[in-house]
Structure formats: C-alpha cells, structure tokens
Write a structure and sequence with these properties.
9 strands
Length: 223
C-alpha cells in the first residue's frame, strides 16, 4: 500500500512543478481571497431521513476554508459528530448510556486552474487527522460495566476538485481524494465492582488507502 501512496505523490509533483518553472516572475500584487464551503449532503440527508437511509454520501469535513493567493490556496477542513443517549427501564435500576464523539480535520495546499468564465479545477495535497470515541455504560444495579472503543489516526494524499461559479461570490464545489491513512483502534471493558473481570486493553493498527469519489456537493461563499 505504501507504493500506492508514493506513486500518487509523484503524480502530484509532476502536475504541479512544471507550472512553477514556467511561471514568469512578476511584481504585480497577488490577489488575496477567502472561501468558506458548507457540505450540503449532510444537511439534505437530515431532511430526507435522520438515519440517511437514502444513501447520500457524506464528507467528514462539514466546513471548509481556503485562503486563496492567486492560482494557489491553503485549504483546511473540519467536521465532527457528538451524541449521547440514555435508556432506562421503568421500575428497574437498569440503565444504558451511550456516548459518541468524533473529530476530523485536515490542512493542505492546492493549485487552481481556470477552465473558462464559470468553471475552475484544482489539484492539491492534504495532511489529515481523525479521532473518535464510543463509550457505553450499562448499570444493572448489580454492577456498572463500561465498554469503550477509540480510534486515532492520521494520513496524507492528493485531492482534486471542480468548481462552478454561480455568481461573483457564490459557487458549487465537489472534490475527490486518495488518502493513505494510519490508525490505531483501542478497546476495553471495565467492571466497577468486580475489576478482576476487566478485559485487557485491545489494540489494533491499520493502514488503508481511502478513495473518495467527487460525490459530495459544497456551497462556497467567497469574499
């Protein structure tokens, strides 16, 4: 899998470096701009079905920001999820509390190419990180059992995107990426009153090539 990551980085360098060497130095000031993108698939799925049974693909980066400097831009993205629920049985001491937290973030750089008055394409290189934790606490009145599972990881890889300008300050944007990721999964089960039954901490390490097709739509506001 590491060969795939090296090959993708090579293709990115081949696509970008010639553009740098062919550029004629200019003393003209580079225009600075800002773009904020909002991922719409997640919002649409909430209207259609809370569990997203409609099958809409979603991006982990619900909000993006780009600092645009001429044909180049520094790109960031952030997203996450958090929910907590508690189930109780009337007349019993039994209860079950589930808590989930997730955070995704990235930072990268992109080269932008004009495809006419309305269209624009880009190719970029990103570094990313992600973390999540799922904890379930079950209280039977006899004992309290806590089951937890956490994932922490990072990765990098090239991305590509296509943007359609609806107006001077609003546009539609979609992107795809090829991220190579490394992650560590840890899990354990703990007994409050009988710690001798605790499960040992389990740890699993994974490496993945995460391919994301351009199926997520963003609304982008520029200023």
């Amino acid at each position: 899998m590491k060969k795939y990551a090296a090959l993708l980085l090579f293709f990115f360098a081949v696509a970008v470096l010639p553009a740098q060497t062919d550029t004629v130095p200019s003393k003209a000031k580079v225009a600075i701009g800002h773009e904020i993108g909002i991922e719409t698939n997640n919002l649409i799925s909430r209207f259609l079905d809370e569990d997203n049974e409609g099958g809409l693909l979603e991006s982990p980066y619900l909000l993006t920001y780009k600092l645009v400097m001429g044909q180049w831009a520094i790109r960031t993205g952030i997203g996450g999820d958090r929910h907590k629920s508690t189930e109780t049985e009337e007349g019993f001491a039994d209860s079950k509390t589930t808590e989930f937290n997730q955070l995704d973030y990235r930072l990268g750089i992109e080269k932008r190419f004009s495809l006419g008055k309305k269209w624009q394409a880009n190719i970029g290189l990103d570094g990313l990180g992600f973390t999540s934790k799922n904890k379930v606490v079950e209280d039977s009145g006899f004992d309290v059992i806590t089951t937890s599972e956490s994932v922490n990881g990072w990765g990098a890889g090239p991305s590509f995107g296509l943007q359609f300008n609806l107006g001077k300050s609003i546009s539609l944007y979609t992107e795809g990426s090829f991220y190579y990721t490394f992650s560590t999964l840890q899990g354990a089960r703990l007994f409050k009153n009988f710690p001798e039954f605790d499960d040992e901490l389990k740890e699993t390490k994974e490496e993945n090539l995460d391919i994301r097709l351009p199926a997520v739509l963003y609304i982008v506001f520029g200023f």
